[in-house]
Fold this protein.
Amino acid sequence: MATGPLRFRTPHIEELPITQSRQAPGFAWVAVAAPPEDPAKNWGTANRKRARANVGGQTETQKEALSARQQREVERKIKELNSDNSKDVQIPIPKKEGGGGGAARAGKTTNTKKILASGKTFAHYLDDEEAEIARTGRRDGEAEVVPVAIQQQRASKTPYARRKAREESSMSASPVPTTGGSAPMRAGDPMEIDAGEDGDADASMPSAAEIETLLNLPPLTYNQARSAPPPSNAPPPRRFCEVCGYFGRAKCMKCGAMTCSVMCKDTHDEQRCLKFYA
Amino acid sequence: MARKQSLAKPLTGPDNLPQQTLVVDNGAHTIKAGFSSTSFDDSEPKPEDCQVIANCIARSTRDKRTYVGPELLDECWDFGELAFRRPVEKGFVVNWEGEKAIWERSFVDERAKLKCNPHETNLVLTESPNAPAALQRNADEMVFEEFEFASYYRTTAPTLNSYGPSPFPSTSDSAPGVPLGCLLVVDVGHSHTTITPLYHGRPFHSACRRLEIGGKTLTNRMKEVLSRTVEVQKEDWIVQEIKEDVGFISQSFSSDLERVWKGGLKDPREIDTSIVVDYVLPDYEAVKRGFARPHDPTISRKQRALGLDGGPREHIVTIGNERFTVPELLFTPSDIGMQQAGLPGTILQSIYSLPENLWQLFLANILVVGGSSKFAGFTERLESELRSRVSEDYIVRVAQAKDPLKNVWLGGARLAQNEAVLKEHVVTRQEYLEHGDLWTRRRFAGKVGR
């Protein structure tokens, strides 16, 4: 491989190692080290347009920052789409006719009093549970079950505590469960291999014991159960015209929204493109 | 074994369960609830026995009234600008203060259609899969300590489907309380879509998956895209009706989108009027319920709204590609940038995480339930996409439940008819008080016997 950076970003051109030191007539990619930039000498002969574009946010880090910002924007929007309650509205529970509602609403026991007075949202419960798993390595209510699972999967010599810690670090992103990473899947793995190799005798069904083991695996956590992203060879996401919903064909230079036609582009410029300075 | 122990400790065994069971499918959008009883063994539970109760507290800005639970569908007639408070968040009961008000109005109040005495009633309650344990504990404590039901069985909603009527014509219905052998339940709910492979009524926990697109995502998305032409951001209920009335799943997305494109600046093309509709919005005076009619390009929306063009005064919104681009999110979440595989991809993720020789069983027994699966063309699209993704050697069979909304309830009602099965599953209030909440939770998870 060449030592210097190649200037081409085409992924399909691969540079093959060449054994000969001297080139035969033909064609080969040669890495050329760029001459050191000397801004004093560069006063007009280079491509100014390109240089300007480079300044305006097209370096790798700037591009990443931009896409991270877009990604945050998309996430915010999805969160909004998945919100349950009406926005900015507080709806109190109406008092019962005939009074006496106050005492009854407070709860009959200490437990229920606590539950009824709790202002926690789902995100709080989820964070609590993730923190609990990270701290103790197991979920509440699985006190004696998980250690059994550890006994079974002891074939891997990684200490359980360390392994668990590594898993939790990737907890926030959605994991690809088939490639392992969650404890239940690990426990299932050796069995899958068994079924594939000596399953000839009863190829149609795994044995009852195997199914029983599978059925007894503990439930995944909320985050583990989330659908994994599509494989990397899936088609790229479609973009749609922001004005009419048809396939987006042109990107607004200012704000990055897509439009499909000149008409929609005009509407976009007049009404929607809120970003006046790019 | 269970029998022996209950003989040894007669107080703890559920020897005298009440006959009546309240089956509650506690959905994020609606509660599906009704009674079942061990005393009428021979009569099949009917969908009519199940009440659909709005699981929300709604506040109307028009008549300044707050509607709790069943009051919304029974007493409210003006759904304009309703604001909602939903106690169920992401499919789990989070706000028990609100849920308690709704339950009390539905099951305890004198006006309630499903009034019952909890001390003489068993409860079968559903939850979403993969619940955080703290929320399960809250539910258990509320049921036993606040409502004081005699006995209680909490299970995931998809599980009950395997006790429901058989969705496939080739398989006959099982007896009440006997689960179907193999079922992959695709539950397209209000909050999300869950995939649960069930084997004789028990889930393969490691293969449960969740796609975070549900009915509310679609409603909110519909609100967003319709607001390009008419401001409907505050009209949750009306937009939901629009979604239910005109939404469909396109069998060939790009060609349908092509058909309703108006074209560019000088493009002479005509839009295909078989898809485009005019939706007349309800004003709750002359029009009580919105309806769709074929698109009439001669009507000017603004003039008609003011009653200037001679026709009746009405508010119209023209709906074209929104009819299918919104439900399309279920199949292509990447359209809004969501980093999750679509419904067919998620189903395959679930199936492929099981041993290979189980794949065929589940591919051939896919059951679609849930309110958002009622879009026209849903089953066909799902089947054809799955077909194109798996090897030809596999048989792919997708069926929709006869009543996608109430199938879970039907399953629960059938389970509750069989006293032996019910006894096997429930925890009585006495047991709860004796063994505590951790034991109860582990018992519902199938970890401890009695």
Remarks:
- The longest strand of chain B covers residues 30-37.
- Residues 1-12 of chain B have pLDDT under 50 and may be disordered.
- Chain B touches chain A through 95 residues (CB under 8 Å).
- Residues 429-444 of chain B form the longest helix (16 residues).
